[in-house]
Amino acid sequence: MPVARPKVVVTRRLPQAVETRMAELFDVELNFDDVAMDAAGLADALGRADVVVPTVTDDLTADVVAAAGPRLKLLANFGTGVDHIDLAAARAKGIVVTNTPGVLTDDTADMVMALILGVARRIGEGEKLLRAGDWRGWSPTGMLGSRVTGKRLGIVGMGRIGQAVAARARAFGLQVHYHNRHRLPAAAEGAVEATWWPTLAAMLARVDLVSINCPLTPETHHLIDDAALRLMPRHAYLINVARGGVVDEAALVACLARNGLAGAGLDVFEREPHVDAALLAMPNVVLAPHLGSATFEGRQDMGEKVIANIRSWADGHRPPDQVLEGWV
Ligand code: 8YV
Asked: What global pTM score does this model have?
């Protein structure tokens, strides 16, 4: 049944052009203060709206979703990952969930390369040294890092982003390995000369760099745990731009502390915005504040997708980016 002008509550500030278009199309409530909503604020939004536009900073637990009002029909997430939304609770209430896949693929894959280069070539450390005024000039043995060219990269999760990382990795002369539930078609594998490993354990022991590119689901929670970290060679680096919860952060800290890995590049954390104090103190860890999709173009495109999803739902169609449980 078409809904002429749905009541839409947006939980965070979005790019101005996106907000303006939403105001033209919908009966929209924007969050001008950009303060993340607490459970009470979310409950209030879910109680009044036809559509809520949440982001990764909104904890849409089973309880919050179960208490949604009878009007709520669509959670049009601004972002690809939907681990902050209890999908089963949404399904039980007949609430459709959509996300924004595809438009942040390249930006996120770029971030993987930035972290690989950042950690292997010690860019963060070097910048800190220089800004502190402690650089005493070039020396033949100063601040040596690891060569990236010729190394083996193991990609965990070979979806859109994993494949975009693989394409970039080839251009940097890296040998691509991957672990994924399903093996890629031969043409896709051939395009990046990728080697598939049916078990994660077998791959981890054989690569020099590991990039996490899978979604956070009950199955991938702490996929990289103490046992997995102990399989990785001591000279290897771990890169995570997916979700903090895929890695057991305490186990990673312990692993880095005993020099079980050469370093890590992290864009995501288990309890954002909290970052473990031990990680903050480690010079061989490059840290970024969840910047994977943080480009003007990416955020604009994500907003366009949110609008398209709401519009098609409001017109009585199935939204193009409906998230189906079990597919993420
Ligand atoms: C988003 C992301 O910026 O889309 C995702 O899954 O990880 C980020 O790049 C953020 O999650 C928005 O909800």
From this structure: 0.96
